[in-house]
Amino acid sequence: MTFKNFKVETDADGIALVTWDIPGKSMNVLDTQTIEELGAIVDQTTADAAVKGVVITSGKEAFSAGADLSMLEGMNKLFADTAKAKGREAATQMLFDESRKLSQTFRKLETCGKPWVAAINGLALGGAFELTLACHYRVASDNPKTRLGLPEVKVGLFPGGGGTQRLPRMMPAQDALPLLLKGDQIKLDKAKAANIVGAVVPAADLIKTAKDWIKAGGKAVAPWDVKGFKLPGGAVYSAAGMNVFPPANAIYRSQTYDNYPAARAIMSCVYEGLLVNIDNGLRIESRYFAHILQSKEAAAMIRSLFLSMQELNKGARRPPNVPPTKVKKLAIIGAGFMGASVGYVSARAGIDVVLIDRDQASADKGRAHAQSVIDDLIKKGRAKDADRDALMSRITATADYAAISDCDLVIEAVFEDRKVKAETYAKAQPYLRKDAIFASNTSTLPINSLAEEFKDQSRFIGIHFFSPVEKMMLVETILGKNTGDVAIATALDYARQIGKTPILVNDSRGFFANRCVLRFTAEGLEMLAEGVPPAMIENTAKMAGMPVGPLSLSDEVALDLVLKIMKATEADLGPNAIDQTQKKLMVEMVEKQGRFGRKNGKGFYDYPPKGQGSKALWPGLDALRPKKLDPDTLDVEELKQRFLVVQAVEAARTVEDHVITDPREADVGSILGFGFAPFTGGTLSYIDFMGTKNFVDLCHKLEAKYGSRFTPPKLLVEMAAKGETFYGRFVPKKAAA
Hints:
Layout: E1 6-10, E2 15-20, H1 32-47, E3 53-58, H2 69-86, H3 88-99, H4 101-110, E4 116-120, E5 124-125, H5 127-134, E6 137-141, E7 147-149, H6 163-170, H7 173-182, E8 185-187, H8 188-193, E9 199-201, H9 206-215, H10 239-242, H11 245-256, H12 261-273, H13 278-293, H14 296-313, E10 329-333, H15 337-348, E11 352-356, H16 360-379, H17 385-393, E12 395-398, E13 409-412, H18 418-428, E14 437-440, H19 447-451, E15 460-465, E16 474-479, H20 485-497, E17 501-506, H21 513-530, H22 534-543, H23 550-557, H24 559-573, H25 580-592, E18 605-606, E19 616-617, H26 636-656, H27 663-674, H28 683-690, H29 692-706, H30 714-722, H31 726-729
Parallel strand pairs: 2-3, 3-4, 4-6, 5-7, 6-9, 10-11, 10-13, 11-12, 13-14, 14-15, 16-17
Antiparallel strand pairs: 1-2, 7-8, 15-16, 18-19
Helix pairs in contact: 1-4, 2-3, 2-14, 3-13, 4-5, 6-7, 7-12, 11-12, 12-13, 14-27, 15-16, 16-17, 21-23, 21-26, 22-26, 24-25, 26-28, 28-29, 29-30
């Protein structure tokens, strides 16, 4: 029997080598056809008396990154159609049956009576890692890029192919739970130490080692199928077990605030599954999986954090008429913290970088920042001396603007001041290559106004990075009214070249990300002025799903920068364009108290020297509060809603203003750019899944109580009246192949 996605070859010793190699794809995925073929291979090799054992490996560089989540999205559509035609009970049964086929296939493999060995030759994540766990032995090639893990929780799901049952039967539950709940990847040395992988060998010996295990009498029985099997961490109701689950529950609550149904289901699956045998445990897992698959959180997260992100990374918004571009040499004017960080990530991606500043010492300081980052990685064992030498050889520091003459792309990252930027453009343009692209890393100043200082505006664009650049995955690409397709394509290609996810937005003050996130920080200041206790402001923001509170985020941004943005906005648009009460507070904090935020160790928080304790809210903040409300009288749910609604309604305004033209970019941008509650799927998905009418009603309720910042735009009111959604009205274009 021949298969499309697998090749099966049986050697003279009766060992079948199953090579997973989906044609036309760079990475193997578990899709419907693959699961069906794998089941057929299990049946075929089990029935063939000549086959003594099976080794499964990959014909690609990696083993597999897991399941094709579009398959799961398709199941939900089938569920909706079935519910409409046959009723919800029939639809639920269908979803349960369909969603557990992978789990049943793995169990069939595990109990077939013939030994299966997984020969892991690279990355093995999600369902692919679960496949290896169902095998009777695992051997991995000694590849530094190899990672194992179950990252499903990061897209609103959890392992549904047996991962919640096999992993805590292989290692103590206290070790398995963090891997399941965080979705972290495991390196080979840790996997070997935990006995998840039996052997790590050179790539050339991988298949031989796997076959040798079978020939040496490797047993075709999983440990949990052997009579008398004991859980490695002790039974759930043992003293050891009772030391695991109560604290794990507390940690789960403190880290998720019960916003993630999938994480809650993981806790239940492990707890309940370990009380019964493996078959009943797998059935429990499948029931929870079918339930979570129907949740709005899973639907939202799969769409935004997998499908939409994948489409944007493939160039869904890239002008199709421009051939692929690649930046070979990059100049960055302004070698401060931001510019130096952009230089580092660019050099890390193999691009030659020139850092330019007002004098040689300043430029050298920027280059030294890049070295400090790679030196820190070496200390942590995540890079080698050779990596540092290669990276630093690609970074040149100078004060000479003539160094940009052979650069494909020039990024200006100077001080956020129109005059300083204009002077920079005047110095740079005489040396700029005619076909080079020039970009500004401005975070708030409109690109159209900056482009006025530029001769060829078709080659001028905004490329807005987020700090810290080394960690933040989003790049906001901003179009001016005269920006050409070549500039757009170059900027998007460059973002992907350095491993970032780009979104494309039209020009506006604050663009998309800062317009929304400044509403978040401003809402924190509003609450402070109302008399809400600072700790309650911070905690309710985190309970709503934000990664940090608004006061903490303001400190990270830098309070002096917040004040500078306020003053620039006021100068351009007049005193009514900003909140004067908030400006007064910022003037007090920055100009009178000298509190600039984390960068000088003093902001809304006090920051002790490194290694000398944790940050704490500044006690002096209490004296700056005009009123003090009793926290017991405050509505926590309403405080949480205010933080999310104020950002989402601003995102809706960016759609009305044509800053955002594709809902995927608002959702992906809001999660990656400023951590908008990931379980919602992003700012526009938050509205869509709540229902536009319900959202508009909530806006009006908050508007009546707190003011016009909650007023829904006309577009949203119109959509609510028609029962429309953003993804229905503004249908995203399909990604480029």
